Amino acid sequence: MRCRAKENAMSFFISLAAGACLALGAATPLFAEELSGKQKVEIEKVVHDYLIANPEVVREAIDELGKREKVAEAATREKAVGQHGDKIVNSPNQAVVGNPSGDVTLVEFFDYNCGYCKQSMASVAKLIEADPKLRVVLKDFPILGPDSVEAAQVATAARMQLDSQKFWEFHRKLLSTRGHIGKQQALAAAKEVGADMPRLEKDMSSAETKAALKEVATLADELRFDGTPAWVIGKEAIVGGVPYAQLKAKIENMRKCGKSVC
User: How far does the signal peptide extend, from start to end residue (predicted)?
Assistant: First the structure.
């Protein structure tokens, strides 16, 4: 990210200088061709000397570029939420915990091997316990390798047969498992909460499971989610861990003004 931003910042300065050169050439067409090589050397020297004398300008340009990219990214994600909102919030291919009829929905895209997802689970659990009107949607987004995919397949199959409370118990148990999580750990967690294991192992490889995981991956792509955890609340989509206090504030804002940020 920084390397690309630096390149863009340098291109910005060179473009300005080149623009000045073109303007000069346009004003003096008889000498433009003769002086083009010389002008290029002079422009490069001017840019080089200016940046050496004022290196803070590069940082300012990089920071400004980052701000503009964040604004553009947020707008793209908000548009995607608007286009796919119903599938994000109400798809049958997802787990719903908390209050299924709650007045505010918090959506989390997660990977069972994601350390930040494991940390975020405590916040989600606390929100559910403290807020009886909160609806939480859990979407398996396995991006950390084959073991994550297998764990997601087990979880998807478990969701097909477990009620909301039992699935939440399974989900918390699996995310609380220490070390790497794969098929065996997921199967063990499912067995502990009383899942029908022969049915679960059959459902793991079913067309329904494949379709459910594909749907989440497609949504994540539309939302430009490239990591976990990722969240959707209202029209806002966020990538990365969000502290409990911020999630709580966004939920309260949804009730107050219908937006995550009032």
Answer: 1-32
